[in-house]
Design a protein that fits this description.
InterPro entries: ATP_synth_OSCP/delta_N_sf, ATPase_OSCP/d_CS, ATPase_OSCP/dsu. The protein is α+β, with helices and mostly antiparallel strands. The protein has helices spanning about 5-20, 25-40, 40-50, 55-65, 70-85, 90-105, 120-135, 165-175; strands at about 110-115, 140-145, 150-155, 160-165.
């Protein structure tokens, strides 16, 4: 992906500064806020990537949205990205920061894909069960993918547990393909 190396450098530098000042957790919360805000607002993402919109306008928008909600270190990062003409990297920097911070704190990231959004109660229960089985603190991302029909797919690190309906249907179809007594579907 274009810009990931630069985003990683910005994220590392921001994390180092935040650790030095004692605000690493607060900046991580800011990065989560920035990531979710940009992902939920397509127009904001388009505006940040647009070469037509002037840097001054982008800075005004970002300041209006985040100034009272984020730490000074995070605002410094936003201003630096604007000055260096790289505001499109903001979401990538936020994602990289979160990954590095989680690694630093020993937090595993669990990615759960479901056909519908999980309720808070169900999410809490799943998180508790995963933490008990792994023995580590877990951070969870819920991805909605209606194509799995039902069930869920859980990925933690390089391990994946697929309990989706679509996966079970594919397994069933493969069993019928080898059966000479059942006509091809």
């Amino acid at each position: 992906m274009v810009g990931t190396r630069a985003a990683l450098r910005y994220a590392k530098a921001t994390l180092n500064l935040a650790k030095e000042k004692g605000f690493a957790k607060e900046v991580n919360d800011d990065m989560i806020l920035i990531q979710s805000t940009i992902e939920e607002n397509h127009d904001l993402e388009v505006m940040l990537k647009s070469p037509v919109i002037k840097a001054k306008a982008k800075k005004a928008v970002l300041t209006e949205i985040f100034e009272k909600k984020v730490n000074g270190i995070t605002m410094g990062l936003l201003n630096l990205l604007i000055e260096n003409k790289r505001p499109a990297l903001l979401i990538l920097v936020a994602k990289e920061y979160i990954i590095i911070y989680d690694f630093l704190k020993g937090i595993e990231v669990a990615q759960i894909t479901s056909a519908v959004p999980l309720t808070k109660e169900l999410e809490t229960e799943i998180l508790k069960k995963i933490e008990e089985s792994i023995g580590k603190e877990i951070s969870m991302n819920n991805i909605i993918d209606p194509s799995i029909i039902g069930g869920f797919i859980l990925r933690i690190g390089d391990k994946q547990y697929d309990s989706s309906v679509s996966s079970r249907l594919k397994d069933l179809l493969s069993q019928f393909e080898d059966n000479q007594y059942v006509p091809k579907i």
